[in-house]
Amino acid sequence: MRATWAALLVAAGCAAPAPERAGDVPVAIPGTSLSIAMLPVPPGDHAEVYMSVAEIPWEAYDAFVFRLDEKDPSLPAGADAVARPSQPYITMDRAFGHAGYPAISVSYLGAQSFCAWLSKRTGRAFRLPTEAEWELAVRAGGAASDLAATAWTRETAGAKTHPVGAKGANAWGFHDLLGNAAEWCTAPDGSGVLRGGSYRDAAADVLALRQPADKAWNKSDPQIPKSKWWLADGGFVGFRIVYDPPHGH
After folding, report:
1. Does the residue 248 lie in any domain?
2. Is residue 134 packed enough to be buried (19+ CB in 10 Å), middle (13-18) or exposed (0-12)?
3. Domain for residue 171, yes or no?
4. Distances from the Cα of 100 to the Cα of 25, 51, 130, angstroms
5. Quick check: is 120 in a domain?
6. Domain that holds residue 231
7. What is the CATH number of the domain that holds 18?
8. What pLDDT is attached to residue 186?
9. Number of domains in the chain
10. What is the pTM of this model?
């Protein structure tokens, strides 16, 4: 298993997340060669938040899990004092693909902890989007969206995730808000909820689909207690991130 994950990490180090374009705001991950492209929501000078252009890919999540941002990964946890997930006991990418693919099987806690880690590393306050923020981005001011061209759904995906950004963007420049991997958002009561549907869902359903966290997504985990970081049956669960614009922006 260690050899398998080592091979995946080498592959991840050779690939970049979704390409940056004019208007993107790249956020570099210190200690790595990676960056996460962000766009304002809504577009323009009065953004409510900046949101990642695509779902968070394995390259970025691997840097978090495996301490690839540290010069010596054998050292104990350092001054950032952010809890990191235990290393997975199975290949959580479900052999769909790793380099360039969305991180999946990640719990709500795991996604939140990635945000806390990235906040510590960059000095920006990252978090998961609220449902309202996600809906604002996905509706893109009411612009029509061709789901066949922009979303990996049951009709087009072939029962697996695909590389982030492989389909076209919506009118505001965001990829994969619908389909591919469903995305963790924060509900009004503070709980985690999945929005956008995934490769498993019909195109007609993905916009309205809303899935509260479900213990069934980790039912097959044989560990006692079950992992709080990974979802053994959550191969459709991913996430993207947001940060609030600077005060006075």
Report:
1. no
2. buried
3. yes
4. 19, 18, 25
5. yes
6. 2-243
7. 3.90.1580.10
8. 98
9. 1
10. 0.87
